[in-house]
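Reminder: ligand-aware prediction takes two inputs, not one.
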Amino acid sequence: MNTQTVKNIDWANLGFGYIKTDYRFVSNFKDGKWDEGALITDENIVMNECACVLQYAQTCFEGMKAYRTVDNKVVCFRPDLNAKRMADSCSYLEMPVFPEDRFVDAVVETVKKNIDYVPPYGSGASLYIRPYMFGINPVMGVKPASEFQFRIFTSPVGPYFKKGLKPITLRIPDFDRAAPHGSGHIKAGLNYAMSLHPIVDAHRQGFNENMYLDSATRTKVEETGGANIIFVTGDNTVVTPKSSTILPSITRRSLMYVAEHYLGLKTEEREVPFAEVKDFKECAVCGTAAVLSPVGKVVDHGKEILFPSGMEKPGEITQKLYELLTGIQLGTVKAPDGWIKVIQE
Ligand SMILES: *Cc1c(COP(=O)(O)O)cnc(C)c1O
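Here is what comes back for the chain with pyridoxal-5'-phosphate:
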């Protein structure tokens, strides 16, 4: 049991915004190797005006959370998968991989140094962890940087849903998220840059998120700007779209496992024609930020698909999956082996 006190923050009313914490991890790549890294207090980064990241967006990131469990441990969820995914992102972006075991160690050390910012059990809040890497030396001609910085900062974030799961509305946009054979499967800042206009436009028109279709044919469901999608069929099969241009969400992979092994449901990762969406019983989007957000409605250019679960409450399977996965994260439900990394006993 740790005896440390948590910071005096109004956890229940915390939003999802940047709050400076005390320490961040920094490691520099130069002359072909990573240095040993350090935990520092300065949150500002000074770089050349022609740094590769500023001119050509050579950067990728990860997102995960640390939680205080029911028995007051501090844990994080499957950080090895974030390490692996970041290695994949770096390889695609011609950046050096920060070794996966060192990634996990650095996450643990960064959270330990900011342990008082991990919200108390039961508050619904958590400590968001943001690893990221960027090319830092000046680059004029278009080529990868040769010097890189890997950093991890943390920020306490509030409960996504303050009063239970509230269904959201998605729209089918006139924009595409990811090109066939493009960068949709990696967690690159550039995928978010081009999603900013579509999401602001969706909000302006009263929708919560965009449900992107495949760019090549605009007939198959992909994902939203920052979350994967799951569906439930009339006979309780949990279905998620399969596509090489979807970002492989760790939350989604975990939910599919929980659906199969904890709820005994049939699961399918397969192509999902948009034409099939009207036949599903439930729909939800999933990612680290909210775990699961139920989708009540999808609007395709004025044509509405209202799921039987409706706009008032989540569907039954969505609710069960949410409770199980958050229970696993908070220590009230037994986790599969290797899913929980203890940061402080
Ligand atoms: C990060 C991200 C997700 C969610 O992934 P998690 O590992 O579950 O947090 C889904 N889609 C996109 C495009 C993302 O960038």
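DSSP finds seven helices and 17 strands in the chain. The longest strand covers residues 126-135. We will return to this case in the review session.
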